[in-house]
Amino acid sequence: MSAIEMAAQPLLTLMAGGARTHLSTTDIDAVTHWAALKFLILDHVNPADCTVTANERSAFYHTRTVPTGLRIDLMRCGVGDWQTRYQRHSGTLSTGPARPNTGGMNNVCSIALGFGQLFIFMTRIVAVNLQISPNRAKAVCILPKPTHGVSWPPLFPIGIDEAEKIAGTVGDLFTSRWSKHAD
Asked: Model-level pTM?
């Protein structure tokens, strides 16, 4: 995994420092693989409530195949404790009365990771028709992969309250009076 770290480190250093840069499609791949690796690690903090299967983790480690349903958005924050923090939410949601077929695993996970001015919001949603995406003016989406390079940082930063709201989006779904846990 050190190759992933080494490829992404110069880019992440620039972005965390708030430097203006252009990420080529090759750069996007490097940051995507680094973020996906962190997602795999943090998703598996508690193996009982992860969303990534052992086969998917193995495929990533051997061929860099990113698990399906993973979305990665980059934002500029750098305020409060979001300069060195992560937050994770995971569970099973359904958009209908039947429990989705997830093989006993959770089907929704979000991980917010902040360091320096870089705020990374990753979501994985499987076996349910649900999409979570931040404000386009404040986020740079790198997965699904754009067809061309992207500029960093986004036009507008997010503040501490917005970072908290974004990081808690999936957790809020589980506690909303409009949602019901899939049994």
From this structure: 0.91
